[in-house]
Amino acid sequence: MDTRNIKIIRVLWGDFKDEIPNKPLFNEIVYVYGESNREYLQKLGYETYLMNSNPLGHGDNELNKFYNKLEAIELACSHFTTFLFLDWDVELVKALDDNFFKYIMSKKVLMPTYSYPKEYLKLHDKLLDNNARLWTNSQITFMKKYGWNLEDQIILPNAGFIFVNDMPELGSSLMKIAKENKLLTNIEEFVFYIWSNCTLNQYIQEHEPFCIFGRPTNHMFKVDQIEGFFEKNLHEYINKSIEKNIYFNHN
Fold first, then answer.
1. Which runs of consecutive H residues, i.e. helices, occur in 144-186?
2. pTM (2 decimals)?
Protein backbone atom coordinates (compact mmCIF):
# COMPACT_ATOMS: atom_id res chain seq x y z
CA MET A 1 0.00 0.00 0.00
CA ASP A 2 1.02 3.63 -0.39
CA THR A 3 1.98 4.44 3.19
CA ARG A 4 1.50 8.12 2.50
CA ASN A 5 -2.18 7.39 1.99
CA ILE A 6 -2.93 6.04 5.48
CA LYS A 7 -6.58 6.66 6.27
CA ILE A 8 -7.23 9.23 8.96
CA ILE A 9 -10.23 8.46 11.16
CA ARG A 10 -12.32 11.06 12.95
CA VAL A 11 -15.50 10.81 15.03
CA LEU A 12 -18.24 13.38 15.49
CA TRP A 13 -21.25 13.31 17.78
CA GLY A 14 -23.21 15.96 19.64
CA ASP A 15 -22.68 19.61 18.73
CA PHE A 16 -18.96 20.28 18.42
CA LYS A 17 -18.84 21.86 14.97
CA ASP A 18 -16.60 24.71 16.14
CA GLU A 19 -13.68 22.28 16.42
CA ILE A 20 -13.92 21.09 12.81
CA PRO A 21 -11.63 22.53 10.09
CA ASN A 22 -13.63 24.03 7.22
CA LYS A 23 -12.13 21.48 4.84
CA PRO A 24 -10.49 18.04 5.19
CA LEU A 25 -6.80 18.25 6.07
CA PHE A 26 -5.94 14.62 5.29
CA ASN A 27 -7.20 11.56 3.50
CA GLU A 28 -9.86 11.21 6.16
CA ILE A 29 -13.26 9.81 6.94
CA VAL A 30 -15.55 10.90 9.76
CA TYR A 31 -17.63 8.33 11.58
CA VAL A 32 -20.57 10.53 12.40
CA TYR A 33 -23.62 10.39 14.66
CA GLY A 34 -26.69 12.33 13.52
CA GLU A 35 -28.07 13.19 10.07
CA SER A 36 -27.53 16.94 10.53
CA ASN A 37 -23.91 16.39 11.53
CA ARG A 38 -23.37 14.25 8.44
CA GLU A 39 -24.92 16.88 6.17
CA TYR A 40 -22.74 19.58 7.71
CA LEU A 41 -19.58 17.54 7.17
CA GLN A 42 -20.47 16.61 3.60
CA LYS A 43 -20.97 20.27 2.70
CA LEU A 44 -17.40 20.88 3.89
CA GLY A 45 -16.14 18.08 1.67
CA TYR A 46 -15.63 15.35 4.25
CA GLU A 47 -16.12 11.68 3.51
CA THR A 48 -18.54 10.32 6.11
CA TYR A 49 -19.93 7.11 7.50
CA LEU A 50 -23.22 7.42 9.39
CA MET A 51 -23.01 5.46 12.63
CA ASN A 52 -26.42 6.31 14.03
CA SER A 53 -29.17 8.82 13.29
CA ASN A 54 -29.08 9.82 16.97
CA PRO A 55 -26.58 12.73 17.13
CA LEU A 56 -25.57 11.73 20.67
CA GLY A 57 -25.04 8.04 19.94
CA HIS A 58 -24.15 6.47 23.29
CA GLY A 59 -23.77 9.99 24.66
CA ASP A 60 -27.36 10.07 25.90
CA ASN A 61 -25.62 9.09 29.13
CA GLU A 62 -22.62 11.36 29.74
CA LEU A 63 -20.65 8.56 31.37
CA ASN A 64 -21.06 6.39 28.26
CA LYS A 65 -20.21 8.96 25.59
CA PHE A 66 -16.77 7.62 24.70
CA TYR A 67 -18.32 4.35 23.58
CA ASN A 68 -18.95 6.42 20.43
CA LYS A 69 -15.21 6.64 19.82
CA LEU A 70 -14.62 3.01 20.71
CA GLU A 71 -17.42 1.94 18.39
CA ALA A 72 -15.81 3.91 15.56
CA ILE A 73 -12.42 2.30 16.26
CA GLU A 74 -14.06 -1.12 16.19
CA LEU A 75 -15.62 -0.40 12.80
CA ALA A 76 -12.44 1.16 11.40
CA CYS A 77 -10.55 -2.05 12.21
CA SER A 78 -12.92 -3.90 9.88
CA HIS A 79 -12.90 -1.18 7.18
CA PHE A 80 -9.16 -0.46 6.92
CA THR A 81 -5.96 -2.46 7.27
CA THR A 82 -4.10 0.60 8.53
CA PHE A 83 -5.49 3.80 9.97
CA LEU A 84 -4.69 6.69 12.29
CA PHE A 85 -7.42 8.02 14.53
CA LEU A 86 -7.09 11.70 15.47
CA ASP A 87 -9.16 13.82 17.83
CA TRP A 88 -10.24 17.13 16.34
CA ASP A 89 -7.89 19.02 18.66
CA VAL A 90 -4.79 17.21 17.38
CA GLU A 91 -2.92 19.45 14.95
CA LEU A 92 -0.13 18.73 12.50
CA VAL A 93 2.94 20.82 13.36
CA LYS A 94 5.41 19.37 10.85
CA ALA A 95 4.94 17.85 7.40
CA LEU A 96 4.72 14.07 7.35
CA ASP A 97 7.83 12.73 5.65
CA ASP A 98 9.57 9.45 4.83
CA ASN A 99 10.94 9.24 8.36
CA PHE A 100 7.45 9.43 9.82
CA PHE A 101 5.96 6.80 7.51
CA LYS A 102 8.89 4.42 7.84
CA TYR A 103 8.59 4.57 11.61
CA ILE A 104 4.84 4.30 11.91
CA MET A 105 4.49 1.43 9.45
CA SER A 106 6.92 -0.60 11.56
CA LYS A 107 4.43 -0.54 14.46
CA LYS A 108 1.17 -2.32 15.24
CA VAL A 109 -0.62 -0.19 17.84
CA LEU A 110 0.42 3.27 19.02
CA MET A 111 -1.25 5.51 21.58
CA PRO A 112 0.56 8.12 23.70
CA THR A 113 0.39 8.49 27.47
CA TYR A 114 -0.52 11.37 29.76
CA SER A 115 -0.69 12.00 33.48
CA TYR A 116 -3.02 12.90 36.32
CA PRO A 117 -1.65 14.02 39.68
CA LYS A 118 -2.53 11.54 42.42
CA GLU A 119 -4.02 14.47 44.28
CA TYR A 120 -6.86 14.23 41.75
CA LEU A 121 -8.03 11.04 43.48
CA LYS A 122 -8.92 13.11 46.54
CA LEU A 123 -11.65 14.92 44.57
CA HIS A 124 -14.05 12.00 45.04
CA ASP A 125 -17.38 13.52 46.15
CA LYS A 126 -15.74 16.95 46.53
CA LEU A 127 -16.94 18.85 43.42
CA LEU A 128 -20.03 21.01 43.82
CA ASP A 129 -21.36 20.72 40.28
CA ASN A 130 -23.47 17.56 40.13
CA ASN A 131 -22.48 16.45 36.62
CA ALA A 132 -18.79 17.12 37.24
CA ARG A 133 -18.99 15.21 40.53
CA LEU A 134 -20.66 12.18 38.90
CA TRP A 135 -18.07 12.12 36.11
CA THR A 136 -15.09 12.58 38.43
CA ASN A 137 -16.31 10.02 40.96
CA SER A 138 -16.71 7.38 38.25
CA GLN A 139 -13.43 8.32 36.55
CA ILE A 140 -11.53 8.05 39.82
CA THR A 141 -13.01 4.62 40.54
CA PHE A 142 -11.63 3.25 37.27
CA MET A 143 -8.41 5.25 37.40
CA LYS A 144 -7.44 3.54 40.65
CA LYS A 145 -7.62 0.17 38.90
CA TYR A 146 -6.58 0.94 35.35
CA GLY A 147 -3.57 3.26 35.41
CA TRP A 148 0.19 3.07 35.99
CA ASN A 149 1.78 4.64 39.05
CA LEU A 150 4.73 6.94 38.45
CA GLU A 151 5.86 8.70 41.63
CA ASP A 152 3.01 11.14 42.45
CA GLN A 153 1.19 10.58 39.16
CA ILE A 154 -1.21 8.15 37.54
CA ILE A 155 -0.42 7.50 33.89
CA LEU A 156 -3.03 6.56 31.29
CA PRO A 157 -3.06 5.97 27.54
CA ASN A 158 -4.35 9.09 25.76
CA ALA A 159 -6.93 8.44 23.05
CA GLY A 160 -6.35 11.62 21.02
CA PHE A 161 -4.01 9.68 18.71
CA ILE A 162 -4.47 5.97 17.94
CA PHE A 163 -2.57 4.16 15.20
CA VAL A 164 -3.59 0.64 14.17
CA ASN A 165 -1.75 -1.46 11.59
CA ASP A 166 -3.05 -4.84 10.43
CA MET A 167 -4.98 -5.65 13.60
CA PRO A 168 -8.47 -6.58 12.30
CA GLU A 169 -9.58 -8.19 15.57
CA LEU A 170 -8.41 -5.34 17.80
CA GLY A 171 -11.63 -3.34 17.72
CA SER A 172 -13.89 -6.21 18.71
CA SER A 173 -11.42 -7.22 21.44
CA LEU A 174 -11.44 -3.69 22.87
CA MET A 175 -15.23 -3.50 22.83
CA LYS A 176 -15.48 -6.87 24.57
CA ILE A 177 -13.06 -5.72 27.29
CA ALA A 178 -14.97 -2.47 27.78
CA LYS A 179 -18.31 -4.21 28.19
CA GLU A 180 -17.00 -7.02 30.38
CA ASN A 181 -15.44 -4.49 32.75
CA LYS A 182 -18.42 -2.10 32.51
CA LEU A 183 -16.08 0.79 31.78
CA LEU A 184 -17.32 4.37 32.00
CA THR A 185 -15.90 7.91 31.51
CA ASN A 186 -12.47 7.54 29.79
CA ILE A 187 -13.61 4.23 28.33
CA GLU A 188 -11.26 4.06 25.34
CA GLU A 189 -8.25 4.90 27.55
CA PHE A 190 -8.99 2.42 30.30
CA VAL A 191 -9.65 -0.28 27.73
CA PHE A 192 -6.24 0.23 26.09
CA TYR A 193 -4.61 -0.01 29.51
CA ILE A 194 -6.33 -3.34 30.13
CA TRP A 195 -5.64 -4.61 26.60
CA SER A 196 -1.93 -3.76 26.75
CA ASN A 197 -1.49 -5.87 29.91
CA CYS A 198 2.01 -4.62 30.60
CA THR A 199 4.15 -2.37 32.75
CA LEU A 200 4.55 1.32 31.99
CA ASN A 201 8.10 0.70 30.73
CA GLN A 202 6.87 -2.01 28.38
CA TYR A 203 4.02 0.20 27.18
CA ILE A 204 6.39 3.06 26.36
CA GLN A 205 8.66 0.72 24.40
CA GLU A 206 5.84 -0.91 22.46
CA HIS A 207 3.03 1.62 22.15
CA GLU A 208 4.26 5.17 22.89
CA PRO A 209 4.54 6.96 19.50
CA PHE A 210 7.65 8.99 18.74
CA CYS A 211 5.62 11.70 16.98
CA ILE A 212 3.32 13.09 19.70
CA PHE A 213 2.91 13.48 23.45
CA GLY A 214 -0.49 12.75 25.01
CA ARG A 215 -0.44 16.32 26.29
CA PRO A 216 2.17 19.01 25.54
CA THR A 217 4.97 19.42 28.08
CA ASN A 218 3.71 22.92 28.90
CA HIS A 219 0.12 21.76 29.47
CA MET A 220 -1.40 23.40 32.55
CA PHE A 221 -3.58 20.90 34.42
CA LYS A 222 -6.27 22.67 36.42
CA VAL A 223 -9.21 21.03 38.18
CA ASP A 224 -10.78 22.58 41.26
CA GLN A 225 -7.83 23.66 43.47
CA ILE A 226 -5.33 21.38 41.71
CA GLU A 227 -3.08 22.98 39.13
CA GLY A 228 0.37 22.46 37.76
CA PHE A 229 2.55 21.40 34.84
CA PHE A 230 2.34 17.70 35.57
CA GLU A 231 3.36 16.37 32.14
CA LYS A 232 7.01 17.40 32.54
CA ASN A 233 7.89 14.51 34.85
CA LEU A 234 6.24 11.93 32.56
CA HIS A 235 7.94 13.35 29.47
CA GLU A 236 11.35 13.20 31.12
CA TYR A 237 10.62 9.57 31.98
CA ILE A 238 9.53 8.76 28.39
CA ASN A 239 12.57 10.49 26.93
CA LYS A 240 14.84 8.05 28.77
CA SER A 241 13.40 5.25 26.62
CA ILE A 242 12.51 6.74 23.23
CA GLU A 243 13.56 9.77 21.23
CA LYS A 244 10.60 11.95 20.34
CA ASN A 245 10.35 13.73 16.98
CA ILE A 246 7.15 15.73 17.22
CA TYR A 247 4.85 15.86 14.20
CA PHE A 248 1.53 16.35 16.02
CA ASN A 249 0.40 18.41 18.98
CA HIS A 250 -2.60 17.52 21.15
CA ASN A 251 -4.10 20.80 22.35
1. 170-180
2. 0.95
